[in-house]
Amino acid sequence: MFDFEIKISPSLASRFDRNIDRAQSFLDNEVIRQSRPFVPFLQGTLANTAMVERPGRIVYPQPYARRMFYGEGYDFTKTFHANAGARWTDRAKAAHLKEWVAGVKNILGSKE
Questions:
Q1: Distance of CA 84 to CAs 72, 75, 80, Å?
Q2: N or C terminus: which one in the chain shows less Cβ crowding within 10 Å?
Q3: Residue 54: CB partners within 8 Å, gap ≥ 6?
Q4: Could you give the CA distance from residue 59 to residue 31 in angstroms, rounded to a whole number?
Q5: What number is the average pLDDT over the span 7-17?
Q6: pLDDT tens for residues 86-108?
Q7: Which structural domain, as residue segments, surrounds residue 75?
Q8: How many distinct structural domains can be found in the chain?
């Protein structure tokens, strides 16, 4: 399970109330989507079952997901995902954090 929760100070929260849920949903979906190329993939079960457990928390519910995430005893195949390997959300974050922040800021700054 991985936490990617948007945190806003209480003094500013009312200013963004309307858009916080939209921004969190955007972030949750982008983390799953942009982590996918890094997720080990053989038959696709792990990559295809990622889900938002609650806003800000992404889970990969397969019983072996934790071992794979930490790379315990795995030699990751690159056949389907060339960037597959351990700590996939960390590597996606390193590659896409600026995009995620820009998207969240865009949503929070919008009037809709």
A1: 14, 10, 8
A2: C
A3: none
A4: 11
A5: 68
A6: 999 999 999 999 999 999 999 98
A7: 2-109
A8: 1
